């Protein structure tokens, strides 16, 4: 089996940039790397992503949102994640089940036990070997996220950015709560530091945990 690393955090925490940088560094070192994201990662899941993140869909109820995430994940696991891990590759995923627990559980206040069951149903036996959590103040993250959205004229994926500060505070608290319950899986990093500083911490964290089985092929 390969090695599954997930990148988590609030909006604008810098995780997507670090996914790209980590992939570049691991690839240069000779590792086989697959970069993916949730929601999305394959055509069907990307189509669901467009529905989920479109601010025009503000009428979407929380249960619909949750079930769409589960549907996108089931397709993504079957098409991308499971085959890549089975072939021994390192998979870097921008968001995974922890985001569902925090956004729909802590944020939307849906039943967390129900969410956990849906996550297990969609992901099957696939669980992260390591999760990097990028933590930063909500105001900092949202300012970054909106700057990115305003710079992108093609697609405005901003349905969550339009939620209240309290909603995003609950999500941040949720992530930190999950990290506290699984310290052996989570690595919490200061997402308010510079990109270079965070990249160094990410690299060190990954190399410390990367098993010999995923060494250069």
From TrEMBL:
EC number: 2.7.4.9
Assigned keywords, A-Z: ATP-binding, Kinase, Nucleotide biosynthesis, Nucleotide-binding, Transferase
Class of this enzyme: transferase
An annotated Gene Ontology molecular function: dTMP kinase activity
Domain Thymidylate kinase-like span(s) in chain numbering: 7-201
Family affiliation: Belongs to the thymidylate kinase family.
NCBIfam families xrefs: DTMP_kinase
Protein name: Thymidylate kinase
Organism, scientific name: Geobacter benzoatilyticus
Gene behind this protein: tmk
